[in-house]
From TrEMBL:
Highest taxon of source: Bacteria
Chain's role: Catalyzes the condensation of ATP and 5-phosphoribose 1-diphosphate to form N'-(5'-phosphoribosyl)-ATP (PR-ATP). Has a crucial role in the pathway because the rate of histidine biosynthesis seems to be controlled primarily by regulation of HisG enzymatic activity.
Keyword terms, alphabetized: Amino-acid biosynthesis, ATP-binding, Cytoplasm, Glycosyltransferase, Histidine biosynthesis, Magnesium, Metal-binding, Nucleotide-binding, Transferase
Protein name per Swiss-Prot or TrEMBL: ATP phosphoribosyltransferase
Pathway connected to this protein: Amino-acid biosynthesis; L-histidine biosynthesis; L-histidine from 5-phospho-alpha-D-ribose 1-diphosphate: step 1/9
Cofactor entry: Mg(2+)
UniProt similarity note: Belongs to the ATP phosphoribosyltransferase family. Long subfamily.
The reaction(s) this protein catalyses: 1-(5-phospho-beta-D-ribosyl)-ATP + diphosphate = 5-phospho-alpha-D-ribose 1-diphosphate + ATP
GO molecular function: ATP phosphoribosyltransferase activity
Subcellular location: Cytoplasm
Gene name per UniProt: hisG
Residue stretches making up the ATP phosphoribosyltransferase catalytic domain: 54-218
Range within the parent protein: 1 to 225 of 299
Regulation acting on activity, per entry: Feedback inhibited by histidine.
Length: 225
């Protein structure tokens, strides 16, 4: 549990969501000194600490109560939730809000030289991914027998490196697939960033602070529409 009396928010340290997360905190009026390359940044005007970590670690930190809030992609949240459910460890969070950034799709892709392929082609194939739980569930639903190759990064080079036949990875602009000579196929999950809260949070001061920030968040979201 986070025993600190300061509200602890986990955000991605470096990656697609970092800049938008920092901008959002700023729009909510949270003043931070993020210049130094520190794990924790203390707000100078509110009892808030921002933890900058790998996106994959954010759901677990919030589920375990190490952090009170987290900003994370639904893709990572769904993957960690499925993994924890399988392991029988706590996997619930309160989803406070969907956010208006970080849109991406988790999609299948394969080498361009193979041309158009349908789902049945994946039968017996090896698919590299950072999202083995989501992919395995999808394959099961579709009745496809394929194996997954878990890679935490550089998934897009797996076919060329002979590690897999295809990949299942996040696509935002599509530039990564194109640069690696891959064709995008079926989308298996669509994702946005979202704000999550530890479901056992009871500290009255922290809850009051969250209640103060939520209308501001709604205001920021409405202003964007
Ligand atoms: C994803 C994915 C690709 C990239 C695709 O990584 O793994 O590398 O984004 O984006 P594009 O279609 O705009 O080229 P991401 O930065 O989300 O996560 P990671 O750093 O945790 O792999
Ligand atoms: Zn990641
Ligand atoms: Mg990546």
């Amino acid at each position: 549990m986070n025993n600190s009396n300061r509200l602890r928010i986990a955000i991605q340290k470096g990656g697609r969501l970092s800049k938008d997360c920092q901008d959002l905190l700023k729009q909510l009026g949270v003043k931070l000194n993020l210049r130094e390359q520190r794990l924790i940044a203390h707000s100078t005007n509110m009892p808030i600490d921002v933890l900058r970590v790998r996106d994959d670690d954010i759901p677990g930190l919030v589920m375990d109560g190490v952090c009170d809030l987290g900003i994370v992609g639904e893709n990572v949240l769904v993957e960690v939730q499925a993994e924890r459910e399988r392991q029988g460890v706590p996997s619930e969070v309160n989803k406070l809000s969907k956010l208006d950034f970080g849109y991406c799709r988790l999609a299948l892709a394969w080498p361009q030289e193979l041309g158009a392929r349908d789902k049945s082609w994946f039968e017996g194939k090896r698919i590299a991914t950072t999202y083995p739980e989501i992919l395995t569930q999808w394959l099961k639903r579709e009745g496809i027998n394929a194996s997954t190759v878990m890679l935490t990064g550089s998934v897009e080079v797996a076919p060329r490196a002979g590690l897999s036949d295809a990949i299942c990875d996040l696509v935002s602009t599509g530039a990564t697939l194109e640069a690696n000579g891959l064709i995008q196929g079926e989308t298996i999950l669509e994702s946005n960033a979202c704000l999550i809260q530890n479901k056992d949070l009871q500290d009255a001061d922290k809850l009051a602070l969250i209640n103060k920030l939520m209308p501001r968040l709604r205001g920021v979201r409405q202003a964007k529409e």
